[in-house]
Specification:
Layout lengths: L6 H12 L3 E5 L6 H16 L4 E5 L28 E5 L10 H9 L3 E6 L10 E4 L6 H12 L5 H14 L10 H12 L4 H8 L1
Parallel strand pairs: 1-2, 1-3, 3-4, 4-5
Helix pairs in contact: 2-4, 2-5, 4-5, 5-6
Length: 204
């Protein structure tokens, strides 16, 4: 598993989440299947496995092709820092991709920790904790590894969200980043009930 070399970072993330109560999960502007799938699946882990209060945020409206995802209706386009004690940013190589630069700068001033989870080699490592795995095909692959690290339950809706991220960021499993691990994870997610037919239908 590619996540083995990131065990320390995953354990630190677990500790930071356990010590938080109100968490914001941010996706990048012009959202795609990976950033939304990662946000939705991670938010489910935070609620069901850790029992945290979670807000999913994206500055832009979700595209109609991805509104089939369970949990997509719960996204907000803004957030306040009141009572927030942890921010997690998914699939963003830089803070500018969130378009919440000033608010995140204010969070740093208030000593609110930020976890940066991403797979892009160009990532700027802007977080308090950076979980950047450039050899993974998608941020959803990293969230899958995190779920396995936690022994967290992967529900059907979560499996669908994760598979959506893998499917879109590999170009329908056609790009060169479609590794053996991607196929193994996709097979496992389908075995857990991921709705692959819905993914294909709505994205294409």
């Amino acid at each position: 598993m590619q996540a083995n070399q990131f065990t320390d970072e995953l354990e630190k993330a677990e500790e930071m989440i356990q010590n938080a109560q109100n968490i914001v999960v941010i996706s990048h502007r012009n959202p795609d299947g990976d950033t939304l799938g990662a946000n939705i699946s991670l938010s489910e882990i935070l609620r069901s496995h850790f029992g945290k209060r979670v807000t999913s945020v994206c500055i832009d409206p979700l595209p109609s092709s991805l509104r089939f995802l369970p949990g997509s209706a719960g996204f907000r386009t803004n957030f306040g820092l009141e009572n927030i004690d942890l921010i997690i940013i998914v699939d963003c190589g830089s803070l500018n991709q969130t378009r919440f630069n000033e608010k995140i700068a204010e969070a740093f001033e208030k000593n609110i920790s930020i976890i940066n989870i991403d797979h892009h080699p160009s990532n700027e490592y802007f977080g308090t904790l950076n979980i950047v795995m450039p050899k993974t095909a998608a941020t959803c692959e990293i969230i899958y590894y995190f779920a396995r690290h936690l022994n967290a339950n992967i529900s059907k809706s979560m499996a669908t969200a994760l598979l959506t991220g893998l499917y879109t960021d590999t170009g329908s499993f056609m790009h060169s980043n479609t590794t053996e691990a991607v196929y193994q994870i996709a097979a496992h997610l389908m075995g857990l009930g991921a709705n692959f037919k819905h993914i294909v239908k709505y994205i294409f």
